[in-house]
Amino acid sequence: MALIDVQEGVQNTFNAQGYLVKDPTDLSAAFPHGGAPLGLYRSVVWKITATRAEITAEEYANLPVELIEGAESIIVAATLREYNQTSLAAVFPSTSAGGVQRTKTTQRGSLGSDRAIKLLISPLSTEDQPALLIPRAIPLVAEAADIAFHLDEEWGVPVMLMGIPDATGRLYELNTLGNMTL
Q1: Across the 182 residues of the chain, what is the mean pLDDT of every consecutive 10-residue run?
Q2: Which sign does the torsion angle of CA 101, 106, 112, 114 carry?
Q3: 38 near 90, Cβ under 8 Å?
Q4: Count of C-beta atoms within a 10 Å radius of residue 122
Q5: Residue 154: which residues within 8 A CB-CB, separation 6 or more?
Q6: What is the CATH number of domain 12-179?
Q7: Partners of 46 in beta bridges
C-alpha cells in the first residue's frame, strides 16, 4: 500500500498498554466499554496522511502563494499479544467462522466498507492516557504480515485497519475516554 505522508517518516505510537475494542457502546462503562474485546496489544502505530495542493504564482518566481487542504486518511497497525477468535474474525478480511479455527477465503470485488467496525484503542490507564476512536475502520492485510512461531520473539498477531469518515465526516478522535463521544 503506497501512502505518502506529508511529514515523511513521522508516525504516532502508543507506548502505554491497552486493548483493542470492536464496536464500543458506552465509554463510561468499564472495559470493554460495551463492545467486543479484540485483545491486549503489544504496540500500536497510527499514521495520518493528508492530501494538499500548493498554488504557485508566476509573478512570485513560482513560489507558493496558497495551500489547498485536502482530505486526511488514517492507517492503524497493531500487534495483538493473544490469539482471540473474535479479533481474527473482526480484523482479517474474508475470514469465516469455524469451531476451533478460522478458514481463509477470498471474496474478490467486495466493498471494504461492508466490513467496517468501530475501533477503540483503550488504554489500561483510562484517566491518564489518551484513547483513539476510529468510527469506521476497515480491516486490511498488512503487506508483510508475519506471525512468527519461534522463541526469539513474543508471539503476536499483526493487524491493520484503515479509517474512513463516518456519516458526520469524523475520521478519528484522540482524547481521554471521559472527554470522548461515540
Answers
A1: 41 71 92 89 83 91 91 86 72 54 57 88 84 92 57 73 92 91 86
A2: negative
A3: yes
A4: 22
A5: 42, 81
A6: 2.30.110
A7: 12, 76
Q: How far is residue 123's CA from residue 21's CA, in Å, rounded to a whole number?
A: 10
Residue 108 cell numbers, joined: 474478490
161 φ/ψ angles, rounded to the nearest 5 degrees: -135, 150
- Would you kindly state where each structural domain of the chain is located, as residue ranges? 12-179
Residue listed under C-alpha cell 478458514: 103
- φ, ψ for residue 34 (rounded to 5)? 80, 0
Task: Indicate the burial class of 135 (C-beta count within 10 angstroms; 0-12, 13-18, 19 or more).
Answer: buried
Residue found under cell 456519516: 167
Strands (E), 15-62: 18-22, 36-57
